[in-house]
Write a structure and sequence with these properties.
Elements: H1 2-9, H2 18-46, H3 53-75, H4 80-100, H5 107-146, H6 159-217, E1 221-226, H7 228-239, H8 245-251, H9 253-262, E2 264-268, H10 270-276, H11 296-308, E3 313-321, E4 327-336, E5 347-353, H12 355-377, E6 381-386, E7 389-393, H13 395-401, H14 405-408, H15 422-431, E8 437-442, E9 448-460, E10 463-472, H16 474-496, E11 500-505, E12 510-513, H17 515-521, H18 525-528, H19 539-553, E13 561-566, E14 572-584, E15 587-597, H20 599-645, H21 653-676, E16 685-687, H22 689-703, E17 708-713, E18 720-723, H23 725-741, E19 747-758, E20 762-764, E21 767-769, E22 772-781, H24 788-793, H25 811-821, E23 825-830, E24 836-845, E25 865-869, H26 873-885, E26 889-893, H27 896-905, E27 910-914, H28 922-932, E28 938-942, H29 947-956, E29 960-963, H30 968-979
């Protein structure tokens, strides 16, 4: 009860403001007195006393004013209403006092005031004396009034009232005492709190100095950061609808980077400057981004997520970068300061450099991973066991035995071995045996296999363990068994293999040769054993072999090389050889050699090279022939034209005749060149080779030397071939002429035709046989024959054996070109002094030969309109003059585009079209012409005709073909033939 009264009566205490505390205490005491006065007056009136109502009014007025004053003092708020109430209270008290006109009505209040003042001045004793005195004073007044000593008493007091007043006086004194004591205690407490506060402030100042010292000199990097802007940024994102901040920041890295620069660094200590190699603290005040590495944002993203969740602490590892560019690994921990939980305006951060630890961990991890990878990559099962119990195994062991790592750990090592081998394995373990030995291993499924074990003691994770490597040797066992089984077969294989196998000792002598060498060289084995290699290879090959040997001594891998051996007959045979040195320590004691006979292959390669040379030359020749024919067309055309205009007696006739004949001979030469280049098949038709051979036979029987007997044997069932009759005629004629030159002393020359069927594809020399029926023409002479070197070169252009006796060397090369162009084949057999046999194979045709030509009606001239399209202006002028002379109307065009334009705008009866033209060639022009008029008559011309090309154009709709150079009559005949 006492404590409760003390709490009620205790005045407020204002920390740091002693004056305000004093005023509050006095004012509180005054309020208490006024309350007591009001209570006393009110009770007095209740018990019948005649205390004027004015006293109550005055007291209440003063009490009201005092409450207002207390509010003003406590809260410092002065309002007009408050001032008006105070003024009203003063006026009311003054008015009451004046209206009563006497002080006696307030006697009781005065006495009570005396008691209160005595209590404040003299304490408990003063209150006691004032209470007694006041009680006696009231008793005296009662006695005086009863004796009639008081004039005009304004109230009547009896003994009961006196007793009541005395009690009230005592109650007033007690309350005053309690108020006094409470006020005194409050003041003492205020003074103590003031002193304590001053002491605390001093302690705080000292603590702040100590804190600053600890902060600056801490061995840990310390930061004070302000994350309030980051918090606002996150709140704005949340208000905009972001709910999953983890997903948001993972998808919006730029926002993470932006937040890094929203963090305000308030302070950092000296350790931070040293750690980040900064020059001053100001370096950090630009935001966290100045020390962030690319990897730093991952940890910072997690911090942002923590802030978004409202958490006040965070800890993680991160990566930063110093101001000089080095990467550092750190442990980061931050805590929000008390009072900043809502704004994150003050966050304490500590950072520990763990770069050395991370590097060590990474090195250790890499080392462990490397050795783990090596262990798992091993083909051997590796076990780590302690006291015979498995504590780890590699992946190979898991695959080999079928136990998962979880199943393997904790098992006895003996469970991987069959019981029969347990005793031996345990004995080796106990004795520390570390050499490999064989056992029979046992899988999880009960199957077994032979294995090789090798084990040794080692330290693993600070404990002594036994590391066991177990190798599956089934393959080795099988190989050993197979080797044992094959040892007997080995010599048989070596002896009977088609390749040549031999061994030389350190002096180059044969110490082993297989049977193939015997059949290859024709020697007996005893003839070669212990004989030096030098006796069996050409000097050039022996010299080259010595160089190869030196290169191999230097460690060079020389691969395969060719060696020329002599056989027993003295012929050179080529072997593709590979050798291997036999070493005894650092000394070579011999070599092993293996060779393959490639003599025939080398011959074919030579033939292929010659064919490629011929084709390359053919390509060049074909281009020259094309241009040459264009020139000849102009020369021959004008020569024929002018010769026709002249008479035999004219002075120029003889010259024109010579020009025409020379041009024709040049034309024949280009025809041969075109045949050689495989591009001269102008007119491809079914041809009966019996007819061709008979024509040549009739000619050569009249022209050849009479010492040569010519026999002709033909197959009446001979099929036709698809080809150019004139070129095939040239083939027969060229071979016949060669035969005549090969028989200077005469003899028999036979020509035979027959059919032959090829069942499968055959590649031979420069030719390729496809399956099918072939027409064969065989030429056999009794001439001087050819050696092998001559046969190799027989088809080379410009190669001749006649020397200064004449001969261009184009005869057989032209034959080769024509036959090759007709998809045929030539077989040559000859020996010196025994004559030569040449067989020509041509693919048979199912079509029959048409030998009757359509007669041309009328004259060679005409009045029709002709369009000539050719890129050679000289040919255009020549053809125009020739055709005009024959009565035709002629238009010319030097390009395909110009020709098409003329064809559209003029009436044209027939077109002479050059196949080879720049920009738009003959094929494209022909297509356009036939699009304009599907019945257009077009004659193709070219000095470089290819069968497939011009025949393809004829199939497209061309009416005919005429080759260059132009002979006037030939061109006029072809034009008339097409027009008719």
């Amino acid at each position: 009860m006492k404590d409760r009264i003390n709490r009620w009566l205790a005045p407020p205490v204002f920390e740091g403001d002693e004056e305000k505390t004093w005023r509050a205490s006095l004012l509180n005491a005054t309020i208490i007195v006024l309350i007591i006065s009001i209570v006393v007056v009110f009770i007095g009136n209740l018990i019948g006393g005649r205390i004027p109502t004015a006293v109550l009014v005055i007291n209440m007025s003063v009490f009201t004013g005092t409450l207002i004053l207390r509010r003003l003092l406590f809260y410092g708020k002065v309002t007009l209403v408050g001032i008006a109430i105070i003024v009203f209270g003063i006026i009311l008290v003054t008015a009451c006092a004046v209206s009563l006109g006497t002080i006696r009505t307030s006697t009781t209040a005065i006495l009570i005031l005396i008691i209160i003042i005595s209590g404040f001045l003299f304490g408990k004793k003063g209150i006691l004396l004032a209470t007694i005195s006041s009680s006696l004073a009231v008793l005296g007044l009662i006695l005086a009034e009863n004796a009639g000593m008081l004039p005009d008493p304004d109230y009547t007091v009896n003994i009961t009232q006196w007793i009541t007043y005395t009690v009230l006086f005592g109650l007033t004194g007690a309350l005053t005492y309690f108020s006094y004591q409470s006020t005194l205690r409050a003041l003492k407490r205020a003074f103590k709190e003031r002193d304590d506060r001053k002491c605390a402030e001093e302690v705080l100042r000292e603590s702040q100095q100590e804190y600053q010292s600890l902060f600056e000199n801490s061995p840990i990097s310390l930061w004070i950061e302000d994350l309030s802007e980051v918090k606002k940024y996150i709140d704005n994102l949340r208000n905009s609808g972001v709910e999953d901040f983890r997903e948001y920041f993972e998808n919006n890295r730029k926002d993470v980077e932006k937040c890094a620069f929203l963090v305000r660094v308030v302070d950092v200590n000296m350790t931070t400057l040293e750690l980040y190699k900064a020059e001053s603290k100001e370096d950090f005040f630009k935001g966290l981004g100045v020390v962030f590495d690319k990897e730093s944002y991952d940890a910072f993203r997690e911090q942002l997520i923590v802030v978004s969740e409202g958490k006040t602490s965070f800890e993680s590892e991160a990566v930063n970068r110093t101001f000089t560019g080095e990467k550092i690994y750190i442990t980061l921990k931050w805590t929000v300061a008390p009072g900043s939980e809502e704004t994150y305006s003050k966050v304490f951060v500590s950072i520990i450099d763990i770069t050395d630890r991370k590097q060590a961990e990474e090195a250790l991890y890499n080392s462990e991973e490397r050795f783990k990878s090596l262990s798992n990559a091993s083909f051997e099962a590796i076990f780590i066991s302690e006291k015979g119990v498995c504590i780890d195994q590699n992946q190979t062991a898991e695959k080999m035995f079928g136990y998962t790592n979880l199943e393997a750990v904790g098992r006895q090592g003996s469970e991987w071995i069959v019981p029969e081998d347990h005793e031996r394995v345990m004995s080796n373990i106990l004795s520390g045996y570390e050499e490999p030995y064989e056992v029979t291993a046992l899988r999880k499924d009960g199957t077994t296999f032979p294995a090789e074990i090798q084990a040794r003691m080692a330290y693993f994770q600070n404990r002594q363990v036994r590391i066991t490597a177990l190798k599956d040797i089934r393959i080795r066992k099988q190989a050993e068994e197979a080797l044992r089984e094959s040892e007997d077969r080995y010599r048989e294989v070596v002896e009977n293999v088609a390749d040549i196998i031999y061994t030389l000792d350190g002096e180059g002598k044969f110490v082993f040769v297989n049977k193939s060498l015997e059949s290859f060289f024709g020697y007996k084995l005893d003839d070669m054993l212990h004989k030096n290699l030098r006796n069996f290879i050409t000097p050039k090959s022996y010299e080259y072999a010595e160089k190869i040997f030196k290169r191999m001594l230097d460690g060079e891998d020389v691969g395969e090389f060719d060696v020329e051996f002599y056989d027993k007959e003295g012929n050179v045979r080529i072997t593709e050889t590979k050798i291997q040195l036999v070493w005894d320590g650092n000394r070579v004691v011999g070599l092993h050699g293996i060779g393959r006979d490639v003599t025939e292959r080398k011959k074919l390669e030579e033939q292929l090279i010659r064919a490629q040379k011929m084709e390359a030359l053919g390509t060049l020749t074909g281009g020259i022939v094309h241009d040459f024919n264009n020139i000849l067309s102009t020369v021959l055309g004008y020569a024929s034209f002018l010769k026709k205009k002249s008479q035999k007696g004219d002075p120029f006739y003889k010259g024109l005749d010579a020009i025409e004949k020379s041009s024709l001979r040049a034309s024949d030469l280009t025809a041969q060149l075109l045949a050689y280049t495989l591009r001269g098949k102008h007119e491809v038709k079914p041809v009966n080779m019996n007819r061709i051979v008979k024509e040549v036979y009739d000619l050569i029987t009249k022209t050849f030397d009479k010492s040569i007997k010519i026999d002709l044997v033909t197959d009446i069932k001979l099929k036709t071939v698809e080809g150019d009759a004139s070129q095939l005629n040239q083939v027969v004629m060229n071979i016949a002429v060669n035969a005549q030159n090969a028989m200077p002393r005469g003899g028999t020359f036979e020509i035979e035709t027959y059919m032959e069927k090829v069942e499968e594809r055959i590649e031979k020399g420069l030719f390729c046989f496809e399956p099918g029926n072939y027409v064969c023409i065989k030429f056999t002479d009794a001439g001087i024959g050819m050696d092998k070197e001559t046969i190799k070169r027989i088809f080379e252009p410009y190669y001749t054996t006649r020397g200064d006796k004449g001969g261009t060397g184009l005869g057989m090369s032209v034959v080769f070109g024509i036959v090759k162009g007709h998809d045929g084949y030539i077989d040559v057999e000859s020996d010196l002094g025994e004559g030569t046999a040449i067989i020509v194979y041509l693919p048979a045709s199912k079509n029959k030969e048409e030998i009757l030509e359509k007669e041309i009606e009328g004259t060679l001239g005409g009045t029709e309109t002709i369009l000539i399209i050719d890129d050679e202006k000289s040919i255009l002028e020549m053809a125009k003059d020739l055709l005009k002379e024959s009565g035709y109307v002629v238009h010319t065009a030097s390009s395909g585009k110009t020709g098409l334009k003329t064809f559209k705008t003029k009436y044209i009866d027939i077109v002479v079209l050059d196949i080879k033209m720049p920009e738009m060639d003959g094929r494209e022009v022909l297509e356009k012409l036939l699009e304009i008029d599907s019945k257009a008559k077009v004659i193709l011309s070219s000095g470089f005709s290819e069968e497939d090309q011009h025949h393809g154009l004829i199939k497209m709709g061309a009416a005919g073909f005429v080759g260059k150079p132009f002979v006037m009559d030939k061109l006029l005949i072809k034009i008339r033939e097409v027009l008719n």
